[in-house]
Specification:
The chain is mostly helical and 258 residues long. It has a single domain, classed as Glycerol uptake facilitator protein, CATH 1.20.1080. The radius of gyration is 18 Å and the shape is globular.
């Protein structure tokens, strides 16, 4: 999955031949990929939390405007991070995406191996926590756990929907030979899901854990984290099932179609 993202993105940007080591993240040292996952997830959480704090400061009396500011920053930032770091690690930034990559690629070797996936997930969690702490420090916000309880029935249903949609976007584009669209499409989907889901679309266990460490607009209370993660895992599984129904296999020549 990840190698397809990188090779298509690279060829779209530059028609010249690309060295093999730049087209397949799996060929790079695992520590480099882990650093990319930690950095990307950390910057993503810094964008989410930092823009949330900025939105609170800029628009203290308008929650709708705060959400708009927060979602725009996340949409743009996530798209850029995926485009920049996909050549290194595949730009998962999300344990659900990593598990899906392993699960869907386990037969043909296109996904991460189980041990590599474990390293990715640890890096993502560490990066997410670091990103929240960085955002707090940049805005001089005291470090503390969030008091923002979110684990209601509608919020958990929203996380199932948001995560299923995210997985469908990624796998659908990969299996239809349009991997170059992933950075913009994933950013746009998450930005839209801020608005059409009641949970504001966390859709990511690492981001959920990271946001626990910021008692701000973007935070989530510790007691809400496990229910959110469970809903996200369920959503990831649902996304794989939907993809299997819509895209049962990668057709020969699909990579060459527009």
């Amino acid at each position: 999955m990840t190698s397809q993202v990188v090779s298509i993105s690279a060829s779209a940007a530059d028609p010249r031949p690309v060295p093999p080591e730049r087209t397949a993240p799996g060929s790079l040292a695992l520590w480099r990929r882990a650093v990319a996952e930690a950095l990307g997830t950390g910057l993503l959480v810094a964008i989410v939390v930092g823009s949330g704090i900025a939105a609170q400061n800029l628009s203290p009396d308008d929650v709708g405007l705060q959400l708009l500011e927060n979602s725009l920053a996340t949409t743009l930032g996530l798209a850029v991070l995926i485009a920049v770091l996909a050549p290194v690690s595949g730009a998962h930034f999300n344990p659900v995406v990593t598990v899906v990559d392993w699960f869907t690629g386990r037969w043909d070797g296109s996904g991460v191996r189980a041990g590599q996936g474990g390293v990715y997930i640890v890096a993502q969690l560490a990066g997410a926590i670091g990103g929240a702490l960085l955002a707090n420090a940049m805005f001089d916000v005291p470090v503390g756990l969030s008091a923002n309880e979110r684990a209601t029935g509608p919020h958990l249903l929203a996380e199932v929907v948001a995560t299923a949609g995210l997985v469908l976007v990624i796998l659908g584009l990969l299996r239809s030979g349009r991997a170059a669209w992933i950075p913009a499409s994933v950013g746009a989907y998450i930005g839209a899901a801020y608005w059409f889901t009641s949970s504001t679309s966390f859709a990511n266990p690492a981001v959920t854990v990271g946001r626990m460490f910021s008692d701000t607009f973007a935070g989530i209370a510790p007691q809400s984290v496990l229910p959110f993660v469970a809903a996200q895992v369920a959503g990831g599984a649902l996304g794989v099932l939907i993809t299997a129904m819509l895209y049962p296999r990668v057709e020969a020549g699909a990579m060459d179609r527009p």
